[in-house]
Structures are given as C-alpha cells and as structure tokens.
Amino acid sequence: MFSYSHAMLRVLTLATLFPDASRPTFGGFVERQTLGLAARADVQLEVVAPIGMPPWPLSRHSRYRRFAEIPETEVWKDVIVHRPKFRLIPQIGGPMAPGAITKAVLPLLHKIRERFAFDIIDAEFFYPDGPAAMRLAEALDLPFSIKARGADIHYWGKKAGCALQVLKAGQRAGGLLAVSEAIKRDMTALGMTADKITVHYTGIDKDRFRPVDRAVEKAALGVSGPLIVTIGALIPRKGQALVIEALKQIPEANLWCIGEGADRASLEKLARDLGLSDRVHLPGNLPHDEVAEMVAAADVMALPSASEGLANAWVEALACGTPIVISDVGGAAELLDRPEAGAIVAREPDAIAAAIRTILSDPPDQQAVRSTVDRFSWERNSDALFQHLSGLVERH
C-alpha cells in the first residue's frame, strides 16, 4: 500500500505523547513538530505511538477502555501512525515502562523495516521514550536521538528506578535535543555531555496565534473587564491555585483556567472558599482554535509553574500579543528578554497579583509583545530537526 524512495532521510518517530481519536489534543506539540518534519520533500516518516494498558480488570476502567477501539495502524493527518499496546502498571510501573514498550514495539519495528528501512529512531520525550528508543535502536543497530521537554528531566530524571535509565539513554544517544538552554544545563547537571545537546526551540503557528481586537473578542466570548487565562493540565505543578488566590487582589477580573486534570475539584473548592466562583471558570480542554481565541482575548496569561522546559503556552500567548506572568523556571529568562513580554515572579499570590495589576494598568502594545517570539517558527524547527537527525545518520 505504501512505497518509499531510499534517497532521503527516513525517520521512525517514537512518541508516547501523541494524539489519537480519543485524545485529539494530547501531545499536540509533538504532533505539530512531527507533521512539520514529515511534510518535507526530503523526509519519509512513520510514527510509533505506544499506548499503555493495565492488566484486566483495570483495563475496563473508562480511562483505558476508550483505547480499545483505536486502530493499531492508521493514517493520521497524512502520516502513518502505529499504536501498539504495552503493559502499564498504574502508579508504580514507571521504572518498568521502557522495558514494556521495547517488548511491545520491537517485533513491530522488524515488520515495519521489511518495507520501510528507517535510518534513525527519534524519541520525542525523554522518559519512557528515551530508554525505550535506546534499546530498540541498539537491537536494530541504528542511531537514535532523544528530545528533552521539561518534566521528563525534572521529574523522571530524578525519580528512583528511572533516573539511571534517563542518564544511560542520554549517554548512549547519538545526539540530544533540549527545548531551552535551561533544560540543557539541567541535562548536563544529571551527567549528560553538553557537546551532545542541541537547543531546539519549539515552533509556533503564527496564523492561529495572532493579535486580535480584544474588546471585540471579549464581547464574542461574553466576557467583560480584565481577562486572565492559564493554560495547562490542572495539576499542582502548574500553579493555577496561586493564580486563583491572586485573583482576590484583582477586582473585576475574570480568570479562565484552560485544561483538565486531577486538581479540578480542589480548584473549584478554592474558588468557592474565596468567594470567587463567579469569576473563576474551568472550561476543560478546548480545541486549539478556541484556545487561540481565548488567549488572544486575554489581557494576561499567567502560569506560575513549579517546573517547565520552555512551555508552548508561553510562546503561544506572546504570539497573540498577550503578555505573560510566569515563574523563574526552565527557559523563562530566555523568553522574557524585554519588559513588553511580561514578568517573572515568585510563586506567591501577592507577587503574581502585583505583576498582573502592573500589566493591566499599562498594557504593552500587542505587536511589540508578538515581536518577542520572532525567532520561533515551525519552519525553523523543522529545518533544525532535519539537520540534527541527518547528521546523526551520517556519523553512525
């Protein structure tokens, strides 16, 4: 059904973070990077996106049951995507995940190579993808690359049973990518070789994320007064609770926390306890276009995370002309290199509130804010990724 020429770079992308029909926005940043690389005339690419499934009867839980109908192989947005299932032990199975992925994926890769002799394995998250890619690549005598994005280094890189696997994979990879200079420093602190790590900034869809007339957009959304948004999973690390507490000091403002997660109930309770239920909205996960509309309408995007790499949400907000208030984590200082971009603050409600009030009192020009992310584009992202992977293939 599918045929390939051998006169170009042939990539097997390994990504546990990748969308499917049941999770259309899951790993959207990985999807966008992958589609950009696949669209090049000098690249042939297929994706292996393993899905973790626990043993019966846990597999019957609604969280996992939805995966049963996902096809094992499909064409997803013009790219062939394979979705093998691997054995997942919830809560305690982290250290075992790379081995389980390898066991499930290696037979599949042998079959794929019968018609598509890929040159390299490109792992899109450091854990569990990285150690799994190491085992698969070594079994097939191929080079492999791993990209570090944030929590995969800050959490898995320090977790018992996983940290040594992260380090070993980083040491054996032909090359590594980091989403920011800060993540590169964190990787070297774990024991990885700095010369092997290339900073690879995310791209940004500047047609989707662009400045708009805020007054008109707010009216369309039914919002009046100052609008603050957060974007990210509703988990403690992202700091939405801190922004809700800060809202107490910002009269008339509304806060929309875009995302879904385990913290929803506690955030709703916090808003009720503070008497802010009428000003705090949790719409859940939204389609990309709706997220872009909401962020462009906002006066401020606040995300006081405990850890990040270089968050896509930061870059997308700035591309919309929306200044950001963020904590001093990951590549924050690399991104906020001028006052128009916003403020880096302590993870404290008072500091967050003060920074937001300052921006609201003297809003920066939207185009000036947008210009802070001129260096970010998917074209640059694809070109850099192609050069990185091609170099590893040539040197192998």
Please provide a written account of the structure.
- The chain is α/β, with parallel strands linked by helices.
- The chain has two domains: 9-203 and 377-395, Glycogen Phosphorylase B (Rossmann fold); 214-373, Glycogen Phosphorylase B (Rossmann fold, 3-Layer(aba) Sandwich).
- 38% of the residues lie in helices and 17% in strands.
- The protein has an eight-stranded mixed β-sheet with strand order 4-5-2-1-7-8-9-10.
- The longest helix has 18 residues, at 378-395.
- The radius of gyration is 21 Å and the shape is globular.
Short description:
Helix content is 38%, strand content 17%. It is α/β, with parallel strands linked by helices.
Mean pLDDT: 93
Strand content: 15-25%
Radius of gyration: 21 Å
Q: N- to C-terminal separation?
A: 30 Å
Number of helices: 16
**CATH class of the largest domain, anyone?**
Alpha Beta
Name the shape in a single word: globular
Q: Which stretches of 5+ consecutive residues score pLDDT under 50?
A: 1-5
* Fourth-tier CATH superfamily name of the largest domain: Glycogen Phosphorylase B
The second-level CATH architecture of the largest domain is: 3-Layer(aba) Sandwich
* Helix content percent band: 25-40%
Total number of domains = 2
Secondary structure: elements and pairs:
Blueprint: E1 9-14, H1 28-38, E2 43-48, E3 51-53, H2 62-65, E4 73-76, E5 79-82, E6 85-87, H3 97-113, E7 120-123, H4 129-140, E8 144-148, H5 151-154, H6 163-172, E9 175-178, H7 181-190, E10 197-199, H8 214-221, E11 227-231, H9 240-247, E12 254-258, H10 264-273, E13 280-284, H11 288-297, E14 300-303, H12 312-319, E15 324-327, H13 332-335, E16 342-345, H14 349-361, H15 366-370, H16 378-395
Parallel strand pairs: 1-2, 1-7, 2-5, 3-6, 7-8, 8-9, 9-10, 11-12, 11-14, 12-13, 14-15, 15-16
Antiparallel strand pairs: 4-5
